[in-house]
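Schema walk-through. Below, the input block comes first and the output block second. Nothing else is stored per chain. Lengths vary across the set, and this one has 147 residues.
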Amino acid sequence: MKYQVVRVDTSLPAEVQLLTWLQKLCLPDCPVYEITKDSYWFIAYSEHGEAAGFAGLAPSSRWSDCMYMCRAGVIKAHRGQGLQKRLIRQRIKLAKALGMNWVVTDTNYNTPSANNLIATGFTLFEPRDPWGFETALYWKYRIKHAV
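--- output ---
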């Protein structure tokens, strides 16, 4: 199946409603991440026009040259199609276009997500001031800019 990843216009209430629904469906045990005016969101659509997954990117609250991959999920029926990797790459591309040097994120008991991060070039790191759960793993990606 073919998929298209689209950046969401979060000024549209219907888009925010769809993102909220996707968060609840894909991540039922997590609180809904607030969709703010300074965050960026993507939805992956199947060739039939159904929402298949989503991902968010927000400015880091810790570093000025860094974006935080805040949420992502793929609906069960669409897993195994490489969508999470595509959503990761889209967010890295946007962070680079915004002039950022780093992208960070965290995982918690999520081996498939950790493997996708490794496959797209992320490495583990230990922040001085951890922000996630006690069991969180922290990931960073250094954006390469042309010299």
